[in-house]
Amino acid sequence: MQEQQKFQLSLSSIFFPTHEKKLKKFKDANRQLAYYTSSDTAVKVIESQTLWLRNTGVMNDRSEVIHGAKLLFGALKREPRNEFLKALEECFPGISTEFMEMAQNWLPLILGDTFIASFSEHPATQKENDYGRLSMWRAYGAPNGVALILNPDAIFQDYGNTGAYISSVEYMDDTEVDQAFLEIANNIRKNKKLLQSFDRDEIREFSFRALRYAAVCLKHPAFHEELEWRLVASTSLYTGNLVTQSIESIGGVPQLVLKLSLQAANSDLNLKNLVKEVLLGPCAYPEVIERALWEAMTKAGFENPQAMTRRTNIPLRPNQR
After folding, report:
1. Which of 9, 55, 133, 219 makes the best surface tag, with the fewest CB within 10 Å?
2. What is the pTM of this model?
């Protein structure tokens, strides 16, 4: 297990340099993650002790997922791609052709088989600690918003054979995507001997994983204030019993949903360890929602839900009702 972890850490620093830098900055700032959602969804998460991952095709930011994929596809047609492929080829002759075959076969299918749950860094400022982020309340919580403040140690973990992973969202334009490709190419060349000490198939798979992650975690720079992180999974990758799937009707739309269990008592990924605080955002019925949350949390085993729940008292505008 230790050897596998060392393998993952070594390759992450080579193939995911932007993510690793952001992760370090996040941890150094002692931030947490906020799951902005409706009060209805928050209660369902607590009662079921599961986190739902929804297909990107029905998310409210679907166009942004498509935008990110287009950025990546565009980069694969420009010069930085060649530098990336040359660097791989210098390590293992023939691997660049295998890599491109994987990309051509899999990338068109990725968006249709990608399920995500989105979180936002919290807090970016002291006022955000008190009130949350207004743009996030409006986008994801209206008209009765709740933010579950999450323990990052429970999120940033190895999801094992579930195929799930946590990734920072990068807000890039074409030039920045090209620069990211070049940085990875340079990392590969600098670490050629190290990479050659690993199995060829593992390096090819890890290279493609970098591409796959980028396809679903690139967004337009205008959305940078969201400070988003995504938990991502796929029906074609997961195994085991930590992730299950079911058909659910959400907003009148029947859809496949992946459900991540938060009931593992012997794991960091359990509900009581995951949820550190609950914020009530702009709400039409704060007293009613607060009481419902307390009841659900008590039944889920939280010892003092009243102390964990806090109203932001943000006024609810008439057009939000």
Report:
1. 9
2. 0.90
For residues 261 and 242, is the Cβ–Cβ distance under 8 A? yes
pLDDT in tens, 169-190: 999 999 999 999 999 999 999 9
What is the distance in angstroms between the CA of the first residue and the CA of the last residue of the chain?
52
Give the tokens for residue 172: 């890039």
Q: What is the mean pLDDT of each run of 10 residues along the chain (321 residues)?
A: 56 90 92 95 95 85 74 82 92 93 79 88 87 90 90 83 83 91 94 92 88 85 91 76 85 90 78 95 94 97 96 79 57
Domain around 122: 2-315
Would you say residue 200 lies in a domain?
A: yes
The residues with which 73 forms a beta bridge, in sequence order, are none
CB atoms inside a 10 Å sphere around CB 122: 23
CA 224 to chain centre: 15
Does residue 321 belong to any structural domain of this protein?
Answer: no
* Within a domain: 40: yes
pLDDT score, position 238:
62
In a domain, 186, yes or no: yes
- Rounded CA gap, 268 and 142, in Å? 30
**Residues contacting residue 29 through CB under 8 Å, at least 6 positions apart:** none
d(CA 90, CA 188): 9
Bridge-based pairing of strands 32-38 and 228-233 is unpaired
Contact present, 111 and 63 (Cβ < 8 Å):
no
For the chain, give me the number of helices (H) and strands (E)? 15, 12
Number of domains in the chain: 1
Question: Residue 239 has what pLDDT?
Answer: 58
Strand, coil or helix: 202: helix
Beta bridge partners of 218: 170
